[in-house]
Q: What sequence folds into this?
């Protein structure tokens, strides 16, 4: 039996929460992505061609979209959880008859929605600036966007549960999320890397997610999209299992 | 069936024991006081009832539902007013109440009750205010409304009257009495013993994670078999005979307080002995023991 109303309410609260501060949660990330785009495109457009026939700007946009998406998905669940934990108002959710699965789905669902929303905004801004070919495959694009936001939303739940203070959360973000996303081929194709770094990138799950999104947008990618989907889905399952186990144990939230 | 059943519960935080084999039961529809000094384990016990804290061992049930295995029904049966004034600064009072009702699986059908609660707690004109705009007493009332939003049969209030003004305290007393009269089971912690004395029918005193007393309030009061006889005399008596000196607990300027055994020391006999000293009694009164003295006596004994 599932407490559907409870699940929906918690999901809606998490969405409502970021919608109440859209400047911070939607606009700021869009502006950041825009700045990246302007800088890199202006500097590199005429020098770099990653895939034949695709300008650097067009190559960059999918990477920026997915990077913004995953960073926001992560921020949504992690900052909401750590705020509620530090402020003490998480008790209101903890005393309610919600299972760990319902708790998980509500937080991750809201993170996915935030990721997709911000991704769409960045894409729309990019459309106005860069000459983009039409989306190659909306289905692949959606699949990778949802899975990528889910994976990062789940990591956000884990980080939010684990961190006791904001600086611990920042450490999680700066030493794990940020390197994994920058070293995953947002700004380049991994085939242009020296062999050691190329091989290292292949064990980074974020690489497959970004590569998959690029395939969805442009129809070109470093690896086969089926492989990319398998790795992305597999990693999402692994972090889900970890997150659900922590929640079921009440790790750091039910003392 | 008991509203609350706690059997041999142990709980340690890191290596600090908070509850050490606590057992107690609260029968349905009673007004129950949970007393104890700071750090006794009251909030820990309440946290376990509400699912916020996990006991290391022992059995805990709310309305017959085990709090971990059958957590949905246990939590639906309990309304908790936490000790700290916590709130989500993103939402208004009405939004918070609707969200809380939603978590408990109630949608729009909770709305008339939410309006009623807002009226009951005199929060109507603050319904659309953000929580951080409210005074401490108002925040406390919102916490109470949040605890009642799913109409739980058992309501637990962890120090609801700490730091509230006289008027709000009176209002809270009236509200808890009303809830009790309507058939709710109430569990209250407080450091104001006269509050427990005025409200509660049954009282548990815990100290350092152990139960030191569990009894009806009247029985608890009667358990202390002493009362105090306070006399003011017209002048200092020469010296007290042994039986009086043995009972003397305090002596001031012509003022004498004797501790009398409720059963073995008739007041008349003591007065006769005093008069036999050749002094006049100017004033006299008897003090019955209050919960405070019993509390001090029991918690000191168990320390
Ligand atoms: N989350 C926690 N982590 C570590 N120790 C804790 C935690 N919660 C409570 N304790 C410890 O457990 C013991 C019991 O605390 P508890 O809060 O239950 O006391 P209390 O009876 O409610 O006291 P008070 O009247 O001050 O509210 C104390 O020694 C306290 O320091
Ligand atoms: Mg306490």
A:
């Amino acid at each position: 039996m599932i407490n559907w109303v409870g699940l929906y309410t918690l999901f809606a609260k998490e969405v409502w929460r970021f919608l109440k501060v859209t400047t911070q949660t939607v606009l700021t990330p869009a502006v950041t992505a825009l700045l990246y785009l302007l800088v890199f495109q202006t500097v590199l457009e005429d020098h770099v061609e990653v895939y034949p026939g695709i300008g650097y700007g067009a190559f960059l946009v999918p990477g920026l979209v997915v990077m913004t998406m995953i960073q926001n998905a992560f921020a949504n669940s992690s900052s909401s959880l750590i705020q509620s934990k530090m402020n003490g108002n998480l008790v209101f959710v903890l005393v309610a008859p919600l299972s760990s699965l319902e708790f998980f789905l509500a937080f991750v669902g809201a993170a996915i929605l935030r990721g997709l929303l911000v991704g769409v905004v960045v894409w729309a801004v990019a459309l106005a600036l860069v000459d983009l070919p039409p989306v190659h495959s909306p289905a692949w694009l959606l699949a990778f966007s949802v899975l990528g936001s889910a994976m990062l939303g789940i990591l956000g739940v884990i980080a939010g549960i684990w961190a006791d203070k904001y600086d611990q959360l920042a450490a999680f973000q700066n030493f794990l999320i940020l390197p994994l996303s920058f070293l995953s081929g947002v700004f380049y194709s991994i085939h242009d890397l020296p062999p050691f770094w190329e091989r290292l990138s292949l064990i980074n799950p974020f690489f497959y997610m970004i590569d998959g999104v690029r395939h969805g947008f442009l129809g070109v990618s470093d690896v086969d999209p089926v492989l990319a989907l398998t790795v992305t889905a597999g990693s999402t399952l692994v972090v889900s299992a970890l997150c659900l186990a922590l929640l079921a144990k009440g790790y750091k939230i039910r003392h | 069936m008991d509203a609350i059943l706690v059997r041999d519960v142990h709980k340690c935080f890191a290596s600090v024991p908070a509850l050490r084999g606590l057992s107690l039961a609260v029968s349905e529809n009673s007004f129950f006081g949970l007393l104890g000094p700071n750090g006794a384990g009251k909030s820990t016990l309440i946290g376990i009832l509400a699912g916020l804290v996990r006991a290391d061992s022992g059995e805990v049930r709310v309305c017959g539902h085990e709090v971990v295995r059958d957590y949905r029904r246990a939590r639906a049966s309990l309304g908790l007013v936490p000790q700290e004034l916590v709130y989500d600064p993103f939402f208004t009072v009405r939004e918070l109440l609707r969200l809380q009702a939603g978590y408990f699986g109630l949608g729009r059908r909770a709305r008339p009750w939410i309006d009623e609660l807002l009226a009951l707690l005199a929060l109507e004109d603050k319904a659309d205010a953000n929580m951080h705009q409210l005074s401490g007493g108002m925040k406390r009332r919102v916490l109470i409304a949040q605890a009642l939003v799913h109409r739980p049969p058992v309501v637990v209030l962890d120090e609801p009257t700490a730091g509230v003004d006289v008027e709000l305290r009176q209002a809270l007393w009236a509200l808890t009495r009303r809830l009790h009269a309507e058939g709710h089971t109430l569990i209250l912690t407080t450091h104001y013993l006269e509050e427990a004395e005025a409200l509660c029918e049954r009282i548990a005193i815990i100290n350092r994670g152990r139960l030191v007393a569990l009894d009806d309030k009247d029985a608890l009061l009667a358990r202390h078999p002493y009362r105090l006889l306070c006399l003011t005399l017209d002048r200092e008596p020469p010296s007290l005979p042994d039986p009086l000196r043995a009972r003397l607990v305090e002596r001031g300027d012509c003022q004498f307080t004797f501790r009398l055994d409720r059963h073995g020391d008739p007041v008349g006999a003591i007065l006769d002995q005093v008069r036999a000293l050749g002094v006049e009694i100017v004033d006299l009164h008897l003090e019955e023991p209050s919960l405070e003295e019993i509390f001090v006596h029991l918690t000191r004994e168990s320390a």
The first helix of chain A runs from residue 4 to 20.
